[in-house]
Design a protein that fits this description.
Number of strands: 11
Order of helices and strands: EHEHEHEHEHEEHEEHEHEHHHH
Structural class: alpha/beta
CATH superfamily: NAD(P)-binding Rossmann-like Domain
CATH topology: Rossmann fold
Strand content: 5-15%
Helix content: 40-55%
Radius of gyration: 19 Å
CATH class: Alpha Beta
Largest sheet: 7 strands, parallel
Amino acid sequence: MIVVTTPTGQIGRRLVDLLLAAPEPADAQLVQTVRVITRDPDALDPAVRDRVEAVAGSHRDPAVLDRAFDGADSVFWLVPPDPRTPGSATEYYLGFTGPACEALARHRVRRVVAVTSLGHGYPHQAGTLSAAFAMDAAFARTGVGYRGLAAPFFLENLIGQAAAIRDRGEFTMALDAARPLATVAVDDIATLAAELLLDPAWSDQAMVPVSSPEDLTPDQLAAVMAQVLGSPVRYRQTSVEEFHAMLLGHGVAAGWARDVATMVRAQNDGIYDAEPHLPPRLSQPTRLSQPTCLSQPTDFRAWCERRLEPVWRKPEAGAPKLET
């Protein structure tokens, strides 16, 4: 039994599709049922809803976790950001992870694959990234088999700026225009998670960096966008202080806004360089249905062609996002 949290999110939805598409193994004992935890089972795609077990509720709720983890072997864990929640990001992350650690022990779940941040070993506070590191430490103390998918900046954050890219020819962040930035496509995170959840061989604890095959500065990202879109694109750097004020203006809670601003300062300070980040290495042979399409990390040009350009061409493109 594989349990998937956030099955209607960008990563979780793709992960469920990959798990359901995986060929059945030759060993009948390895056949896996997929169970999902979701606040709204009706939000699942009908074709998915008919093929999974759905547990309704939040994976912060111990009672929900008890129902979901009963009989489970492996869990995909992702803490969904909620920037309007009072308190610090670390308190928020551990509010989810603490009950999960207790439920893992009660139900003797063997393995967890979680989405965390790249940058382990960074010696300073890193806001929301430090919250992810605290989550890793909590899971490690349980002794459960653990794979932390250490991800840097999500390329999908740029989709929220598609309208500004189309209408003004610019995108804006508080990241240093001249510093190379480690990035990742969410599909690659889902692919690596599926590969690990379907592989019965591991039971130890390790971090697994997952990133695009190149680090590009924001100015270089703009140049690639311009080439793919056939339209001028420039990067406009704002200050961290302006970014912090913008978050507060959008209703982000004070503690979360502070922690996101601290995260950006850590990114500008090179936090992602604290941890080597090679492209994900997916084992072969793979049980995924189309290994030739999924076994290589996504470069930025390919991501722009597949994800950004279709949204950029839509008149309604680009509601602001608050993901990291």
